[in-house]
Amino acid sequence: MTTELRRICAFYSKGRNYVDVLRRVRQDNPAAQIYAMVPARYPLSDAEGALADEVLRIDRERYGWRDLLAFLHLLGRIRKARYDVFIIAFDSPRLRILAALSGASRCAYCTLEGRLVDIQPSVSGTLANVTFRNVWGRLVYAGVWCAVHFLRVGR
Fold it and tell me: Less Cβ crowding at N or C end of the chain, within 10 Å?
């Protein structure tokens, strides 16, 4: 990432140390305007507050198919803000789709080692990637299942 002034949104996800994500984004983009998007009940630490220029509170910690209207409201809010970069805390199909739908020209996720890895900002590319990963995972599972059930183990 470059050091030019940008609007960057770092989206919170449960299960990841959020301060590490914000620290990496701030390290790579010291002059950027960083928005920390966190759930309403998330207890923001002093370190997280110091790394973010603005904290944006969202309604829920998780969004799913049952919460489609809430998700569409969140998506509208993200798209309306017109972020240059949208960062998700880790690589998951749901978060990839959210990043692709964000409208940002650049999307990335933070690895466990703290690197920012670019992902496809296009919806079609993201859906193709998610579908491929799903099909590949099912094929691997089927192969393991067949090996467990059909291969003989010597005694």
Answer: C
